[in-house]
Amino acid sequence: MTGRPDPVGPDRRAALTAGLAVVRTRIADACAAAGRDPAGVTMIAVTKTYPAGDAVALTGLGVTDLGENRDQEAAPKAAEVAAAGVTARWHFIGQLQRNKARSVVRYADVVHSVDSVRLARALATAAESGRDRPLETLVQVSIDGDAARGGALPGAADADRGLGPVAEALAGLGSLRLAGLMAVAPLGWEPERAFARLAEVAEGFRAGHPAATALSAGMSGDLEVAIGYGATHVRVGSALLGMRSTLR
Ligand SMILES: *Cc1c(COP(=O)(O)O)cnc(C)c1O
């Protein structure tokens, strides 16, 4: 049995309302500066480390998309939000181990962090039995090419970790749908340089996968730059919900 989450109090509701107004304005301004329609940018509220009550309150304020980065936290939170009678679109955005695939496909609508052919296959197998419609997937791209830090490698021949092979795997597996690319600006890189590089990679990628138009890039600190370089999904945590006490 999953309990209903505790509702937020009036002060927390006011803080979330204010955070949301700020972020919506930032997105609108960035779209105006880039000559883009704000309808082309989906804001994902990243609720990691915050309780299900916050997620429910955000949906009450019009947020449709929620993001989490750890299965241990996301699975029970998604169940609690559902128990509150709320339907949200859940995005899994964190590093994912293959042994968690079976759990993640049950609540996630989109997985942003596929960076190996082996993970793609594990998700496909899990999605075949664990859900009744295809799982949307994005290839997480390594912008700095550092294989140790996660992300598929653009231009690499690596049969498991190359961007090409991972995208081909996702496009070819029936229980998955290839929706696009995701990236995080590497530590120590200017967002401008990181997202310019990502836009280049995305252009080449779309030549081979024209229907996979999603570009998940930009967080609280750099969403304007990401929108300027074509982000269709921004993943916003601290600017909406407050600073997290843990570094993740
Ligand atoms: C935590 C997280 C975010 C949100 O980060 P903020 O800086 O709090 O907006 C976005 N993307 C990923 C992959 C994350 O893990």
From TrEMBL:
The modification N6-(pyridoxal phosphate)lysine is found at K48. Keywords: Pyridoxal phosphate. InterPro entries: Ala_racemase_N (IPR001608), PLP-binding_barrel (IPR029066), PyrdxlP_homeostasis (IPR011078). Residues 40-244 form the Alanine racemase N-terminal domain. Pfam families: Ala_racemase_N (PF01168). Gene3D superfamilies: Alanine racemase (3.20.20.10). One of its GO terms (molecular function) is pyridoxal phosphate binding. Its cofactor is pyridoxal 5'-phosphate. PANTHER family: PROLINE SYNTHETASE CO-TRANSCRIBED BACTERIAL HOMOLOG PROTEIN, PYRIDOXAL PHOSPHATE HOMEOSTASIS PROTEIN. Belongs to the pyridoxal phosphate-binding protein YggS/PROSC family. HAMAP family: PLP_homeostasis. Pyridoxal 5'-phosphate (PLP)-binding protein, which is involved in PLP homeostasis. This is Pyridoxal phosphate homeostasis protein. It comes from Micromonospora matsumotoense.
